[in-house]
């Protein structure tokens, strides 16, 4: 059996990185949930954007990706499920994260199961998941799981992040992504579910 392919994208800039740590925890939670519900093996790959920063900049200027960036984009677009984690800067996702998304063709993530996560210094940055990150993937027509996971600095420093509130959210989000992957293994959207706006407008009648 071909393995499920889960790709986690980490936009952390430092090393070690709390963003990478969150991406790893979310990937493990997804792996465990898939293994609990399916005999198929699970292949997890992590894409570190900090290692591709120069390639991403070159691609934005020239329009041509280098080999490493091309491999990363192909991994994401070919995945059964994607985990996207970014640090929050100035109330939104990082510029590096957005630049990577910009080099992916807009049609490549249609129907793709996606789990979103973010890290920041304080919990007040958590709203960026809903007003910035979720709308971004909604625009790309990805299938984003209900639970988004934010990890503030205190989530890692107070007690065991595996068993506390953060651990619960990570487990729940991983289960939700696994459910989408199991139910929509091809990550596709049915064409009949998308009704062109002009067709919707043609059927609209002003009530009398």
Write the layout of secondary structure elements.
Layout lengths: L3 E7 L7 H20 L4 E7 L4 H10 L4 H11 L3 E9 L2 E2 L1 H8 L10 E8 L7 H12 L3 E2 L4 E4 H5 L7 H19 L13 H6 L6
GO molecular function: oxidoreductase activity
Keywords: Flavoprotein, FMN, Oxidoreductase
Protein name: FMN reductase
Would you kindly provide a written description of the structure presented here, covering whatever features stand out?
By secondary structure, the chain is an alpha/beta fold. The chain has a single domain, classed as Rossmann fold, CATH 3.40.50. The chain has 8 helices and 7 strands. Strands 1, 2, 3, 4, 5, 6 and 7 form a 7-stranded mixed β-sheet that branches. Strand 5, helix 5 and strand 6 form a beta-alpha-beta unit. Helix 1 packs across helix 7. It is globular and about 45 Å long.
Short description:
By secondary structure, the chain is an alpha/beta fold. Helices cover 44% and strands 19% of the residues.
Measured between the Cα atoms of the first and last residue, the distance is: 59 Å
- Helical content band: 40-55%
CATH architecture: 3-Layer(aba) Sandwich
Q: The CATH topology is what? A: Rossmann fold
In sequence order, what are the helices and strands, one letter per element?
EHEHHEEHEHEEHHH
Domain NADPH-dependent FMN reductase-like: 5-156
Keywords: Flavoprotein, FMN, Oxidoreductase
GO molecular function: oxidoreductase activity
Organism: Streptomyces mexicanus
């Amino acid at each position: 059996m071909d393995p499920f392919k889960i790709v986690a994208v980490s936009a952390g800039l430092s090393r070690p990185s709390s963003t990478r740590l969150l991406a790893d925890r979310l990937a493990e939670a997804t792996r465990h949930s898939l293994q609990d519900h399916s005999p198929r093996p699970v292949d997890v790959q992590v894409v570190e954007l900090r290692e591709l920063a120069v390639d991403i900049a070159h691609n934005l200027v020239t329009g041509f990706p280098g080999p490493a960036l091309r491999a990363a984009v192909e991994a994401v677009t070919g995945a059964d499920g994607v985990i996207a984690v970014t640090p929050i800067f100035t109330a939104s996702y990082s510029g590096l994260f957005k630049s990577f998304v910009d080099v992916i063709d807009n049609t490549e993530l249609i129907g793709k199961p996606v789990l979103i996560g973010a890290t920041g210094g304080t919990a007040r940055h958590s709203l960026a998941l809903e007003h910035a990150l979720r709308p971004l993937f909604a625009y790309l027509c990805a299938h984003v799981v209900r639970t988004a996971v934010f990890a503030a600095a205190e989530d890692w420093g107070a007690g065991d992040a595996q068993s506390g509130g953060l651990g619960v959210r990570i487990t729940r989000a991983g289960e939700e992504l696994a459910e989408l992957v199991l139910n929509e293994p091809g990550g596709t959207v049915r064409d009949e579910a998308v009704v062109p706006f002009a067709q919707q407008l043609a059927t609209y009648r002003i009530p009398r």
